[in-house]
Design a protein that fits this description.
about 325 residues; mainly beta; 5-stranded mixed beta sheet; 31 strands; elongated
């Protein structure tokens, strides 16, 4: 509080005045909020002394909303690209109209390396991805540091990394020249899932018989662009196939999957195909009006048992008897199975 006709404040405050006369009458003025800005002390240039051409000076704006910000050559913005040694300064005002200035002396000791990250999309889980550094210019690079999602993973000029999870990622490459100049490059990228946990359902398989094989996978089959099977030199396409296999035994199968995000996977399996039974038959009684008798000669593969038999006489007639008799009502030639 003060009884003077004027007051000086050096802190944030709310000020009002009470005026009274010699009769005891008093009047209280409206309140005024006083905000004291320390912008000239708190906003400074970051970086002075030894610097590198190609790097930038920046400001610690301390949370102020800076306005009318200009550097010594009338360049606007909160950073300034360095080219030569010398004196650098800026001037700006805050939201209250208070002016801030700062000045630094800079000594250029070398050139900041221009660096890029070289890589090849797509990025997929369960496959090694290569990231290479590309440094432009004549600077001798003394050190590298690769930072993946905040963790350093290598200090070499290139790095291989296998991603186990899909999602968004960031990789940063920091480089330092032999005179201490540094620069960095960043890359944001998406890692896509690779088809995995694949298996084949086949049911029972016999050589020279119809088969139906189906691919099972944890991957969403709607997101598969291609499914290619390689079986005994033949190529089949699709999630479900009907292969034609003449050989018996454990047949090697290779399945290649390609997602619509260009991630691929290959898996190999062996599918057991059972040998086909050897079947022949003899017949007698081919004169019209006679009963024709049919007798099979069946050689079952070792370990297999016959479960059923059916004759098809070629005229629509059938029989499940081992040794069958059939009467043909019309003369002619018939295909018997």
């Amino acid at each position: 509080a003060s009884t003077a006709s004027s007051i000086t404040s050096n802190q944030n405050d709310t000020i009002f005045c009470i005026v009274s006369d010699n009769f005891g009458c008093a009047y209280t003025t409206d309140s005024s909020v006083v905000s004291i800005s320390a912008v000239d002390e708190e906003v400074v240039i970051l970086g002075d002394g030894d610097q590198c051409q190609g790097n930038s000076l920046s400001l610690n704006n301390a949370g102020y909303d800076l306005q009318n910000l200009l550097w010594q050559d009338n360049t606007p913005g909160e950073s300034f690209l360095l080219n030569t040694s010398g004196t650098y300064w800026f001037q700006a005002t805050d939201e209250l109209g208070c002016i801030t200035r700062d000045t630094v002396e800079v000594n250029i000791i070398g050139v900041a390396p221009e660096v890029n990250i070289l890589s090849s999309a797509p990025f997929c889980t369960n496959s090694e991805e290569l990231f290479e550094s590309e440094v432009l210019g004549d600077e001798n690079i003394a050190a590298y540091a690769w930072i993946l999602n905040g963790n350093e993973i290598s200090q070499n000029s290139e790095v291989n990394f296998e991603f186990t999870q899909s999602g968004e990622n960031n990789i940063t490459l920091n480089v330092w020249s032999d005179v201490g100049c540094s620069n960095n490059a960043q890359l944001n990228f998406q890692v896509n899932p690779t088809p995995e946990n694949n298996s084949i359902f086949t049911g029972s398989n016999c050589a020279n018989n119809p088969m139906l094989w189906t691919l099972f996978t944890d991957f969403n089959t709607a997101e598969l662009q291609e499914v290619t099977w390689n079986i005994e030199g033949e190529v089949y396409n699709g999630v479900q196939i009907s292969p034609e296999i003449t050989n018996s035994g454990f047949i090697p199968v290779e399945v290649n999957l390609l997602s619509n995000q260009a991630c691929s996977a290959t898996f190999n399996s062996f599918i057991e195909v059972l040998p086909q039974a050897e079947i022949d038959f003899s017949a007698s009684g081919f004169c019209f009006g006679d009963l024709t008798s049919f007798s099979p000669q069946i050689n079952m593969p070792q370990g297999q048992e016959q479960t059923n038999l059916q004759w098809s006489f070629g005229d629509g007639g059938v029989s499940g008897q081992m040794n069958a008799l059939h009467f043909y009502p019309n003369p002619g030639a018939y295909d018997v199975d």
